[in-house]
Amino acid sequence: MIKARAEAAQQLLDRMARGTLDRRAFLKLAAAMGVAVLLDPGQTEQALAAGQTQLANRQAVKDSYDYVIVGAGAAGCIVAARLADAGADVLLVESGGSDDLPQVTTPGLWFTNIGGPLDWKFHAAPSPDVNNRAVPLAMGHVLGGGTSINAMLWVRGVAQDYDDWAQQGCDGWRFSDVLPVFKEIEDWEGGANQWRGAGGPLQIGTAHAPHPTAAAFVDAARQMDIPILDDMNGPMREGAGYANMSINRDGSRASAARAFLRPVLGRPNLTLLLNTDAVRLLFKGSRCTGIALHGADGVRNVAARREIIVTAGGIASAKLLLLSGIGDADDARRAGITPTVDLKGVGRNFQDHPLLFGVALRYKGKFPPRSMTSNAVEAAALVRSDSAVNRPDVMMVLQQVSAVTPEIRAAFGAAPENGFVISPALVRPTSRGRYQLTSADWRQAGRLDAGFLATERDLEATARCIDLCRDLGRQHGFDPVRAAEAIPGRSLGKAALRDFARNATISFGHPVGTCKMGIDEMAVVDSQLRVHGVEGLRVCDSSIMPSIVTGPTSAASHMIGAKAAHMILGTA
Ligand SMILES: Cc1cc2nc3c(=O)[nH]c(=O)nc-3n(C[C@H](O)[C@H](O)[C@H](O)COP(=O)(O)OP(=O)(O)OC[C@H]3O[C@@H](n4cnc5c(N)ncnc54)[C@H](O)[C@@H]3O)c2cc1C
């Protein structure tokens, strides 16, 4: 009851922040709904200022801004907020719409967004490595980007991930360089320490009333001699435990939009345009001077006095560069685009984590309902697929939902009605994919060869991880909750296990790498995230990762946005 009233109060605040309610109407409704006492005066003033300011700014879009930022996801929200806070005149353009929706704010509903209106609904091209399936690749198409629809896992990876970047020529990106940035953005419920930050804008915590399957998972991991970690982000290493989530103390989703952007939307020097697509970058010689936008009123050009900053995510950032002639010049001509800069790496080096749905277990009796504050992924283990491997390369992910891919269902039967899944995930893939345009029309999705399980090493590690997940499910720790393994439910020989991997693979939702940072000929941006060969243009999001981090990519994407803001402002 109290929660329902708190949600009603939040919805009213959101409507006012969008500019669809004025102060009088807001106060009248709050009194009528009996939620006035729940309203924090500071939040009310912030929402009112945001609504009035953004309404006025939208009605008077200017011909030029200091910075134009494309994409309001994990990285874009942080860059925009920090630059606006520093006094710059900022335009933030987002293709998706508002995030004032219960399926965004309620953690337990996140997966209902996959394939729905808040998802770009992208698919990888069919590949024999996954039995010619066109694997769906969900990406957030809404204010907040992926952080508004993701599973809220907050995982930095391991320290070596960032040291690897530095070794590849990315100066300033060693783990010791990025740790302070991770710390400054978070408000970890356990308080600050050598590894963690407290008091930052983004609240991070673990499940407070975990589902019985989560405790069973951790017990089972202990029985497999996997180290148990009190906090999976500190120290960041092999082990199992309760997952960190980006979640507010009140149990609602903590997204980049809510944590970083909303508090500054009352600033007159920040304009947020929703439902607006960036379709092409504009140039004068080798300088990027502006951008062509497509919104409800058609196309308009906006100039950037200082820089254009592209934060459109793991695929769309590369797409915008390619549409603007930055990429392989021969490919550009073939697509009917005049080449601007011959940068062969744009769209290449694609990486994602294959995730398998999975090893399905039948629950003992009726599956207890999860709390709506649960992300349904409350525990995980980061391990090595083989003792010969020198660092963690696979993850076992508890999924407190009962689902398998259609191909696994056809071969092994439906997932049990009362059940849950242990998903193998390959978190250090060696294969690399490629994104390409199929036409010069920005509305066309283009083609992604994702490279899932495309190398022998990746297939072998994934197959081993299936066995590890099955082993985990057999441990006594699961006895209180597991009746039996339902899928695969029988032992699989080498060929059958590999076939299972090919049929069960989906995307973990972590596309990165298509505008990679570095100094080699395939690098797209330098270590300050400036596009090679172009002035006035940076790419500052998940697409710049030279190699994917060992775990979900949201935390690293936030860090990239925050570090980019420091670079632009000269504060790091
Ligand atoms: C279903 C799902 C579950 C996930 N679960 C997790 C998880 O639990 N933990 C985790 O760490 N990571 C998870 N991720 C991944 C994580 O959300 C991403 O790594 C992260 O959001 C990437 O940040 P980004 O800033 O690079 O891009 P995004 O957050 O994707 O933001 C890009 C934004 O740009 C907008 N955009 C794109 N093209 C244009 C254009 N032309 N014009 C204007 N705007 C444009 C998009 O609409 C989007 O809002 C998940 C992702 C999905 C989709």
UniProtKB/TrEMBL annotation:
**Pfam families referenced in this protein's UniProt entry, alphabetically:** GMC_oxred_C (PF05199), GMC_oxred_N (PF00732)
Write out the coiled-coil annotation as residue ranges: none
- What sequence ranges are listed for the domain Glucose-methanol-choline oxidoreductase C-terminal? 429-561
User: Which InterPro entries does this chain map to?
Assistant: FAD/NAD-bd_sf, GMC_OxRdtase, GMC_OxRdtase_N, GMC_OxRtase_C, TAT_signal, TAT_signal_bac_arc
* Names of required cofactors: FAD
Give the matching NCBIfam families.
TAT_signal_seq
Q: What is this protein called?
A: FAD-binding protein
- Per the UniProt entry, what species is this protein from, by scientific name? Paraburkholderia panacisoli
